[in-house]
Amino acid sequence: MTDVPMLSRSALDRAEELRSDSEALRSGWADALVLRVNHRGQVRLDGSELVLDPAAELGPEPVSGAVFLGRRDGRHLWAIRVAAALTGELGDLRFVGDRLADTSAGLLTTAIAILNWHDSAGFSPVDGAATTPTISGWSRHSTSTGHEEFPRTDPAVICLVHDGADRVLLARNGNWPERRFSVLAGFVEAGESLEACVMREIAEEVGLVVSDVRYLGSQPWPFPRSVMIGFSAVGDPDAPIIFADGEIAEAHWFGRDEVKAALEAGDWSADTDARLLVPGSVSIARGMLEAWAKA
């Protein structure tokens, strides 16, 4: 890849050493800022900037449910899930991530990822008891045994399959509208290496045996809590395409010129009658396609 993926360009100082320093966090709360995130994952925006509110509006010290994200210009930054409606311009990371500055992109990506984890981690997977957040939101303890759980991140591979020359294989998931294509992806299974996952997923989804699996880069994708690990691999365009697991509706080999034209046209929302539409810039898939198209 030639560029850092959009959601991997974080310049946020995560200040991990402060997460368990309750005194420092209480001291910094008076001057801290908080990012409010609604249950749809939306936040308030002011143009290309996130709207951050004074944390003291929530109370005189860190409140339950708030997660410490780090610091910027010496000020502590927190995030919290809110039930009340947010007003003003709202944005979702998937649609505004590419217009945010590096620090704001890292802040929002981290906030969405960890708040999504908290939403599904209310009970211990070990003893079934209710859990409570600790370490300023970076772990949860069982109220029964004290067992500690940390934020979950699910690894998923995403692979650009090409023929070693000027063709790339792109597929359309059965849930996507026609003409919307992307590279292939899937979750890593227990006991599986990343490279083995690439080969298995491609075989399952389109029936191809690939070789020359190479790492390209990675990007957090907090929907709900994944990290996308990018690879390329070589496949045979003359081999039959078989939709073994039923997830893929169609897949085709596209030429480099056709991919370049699709990239120039925009993304999945482009107003064009071309047979190929590609993902937007917030997705690592687009960065992979852009790098391949320029090669």
Description:
The longest helix is centred in the middle third of the chain and has 19 residues, at 102-120. Strands 11, 12, 13, 14, 15 and 16 form a six-stranded mixed sheet that branches. The model has no long low-confidence stretch (mean pLDDT 96). This protein has helices spanning 22-29, 93-96, 102-120, 194-206, 256-265, 284-294; strands at 33-37, 42-46, 49-50, 53-54, 67-72, 75-81, 90-92, 131-134, 139-142, 148-149, 154-162, 167-173, 184-187, 211-221, 226-234, 248-255. With 295 residues, the protein is an alpha+beta fold. The protein is built from six helices and 16 strands.
Q: Secondary structure elements and their pairing?
A:
Layout: H1 22-29, E1 33-37, E2 42-46, E3 49-50, E4 53-54, E5 67-72, E6 75-81, E7 90-92, H2 93-96, H3 102-120, E8 131-134, E9 139-142, E10 148-149, E11 154-162, E12 167-173, E13 184-187, H4 194-206, E14 211-221, E15 226-234, E16 248-255, H5 256-265, H6 284-294
Helix pairs in contact: 5-6
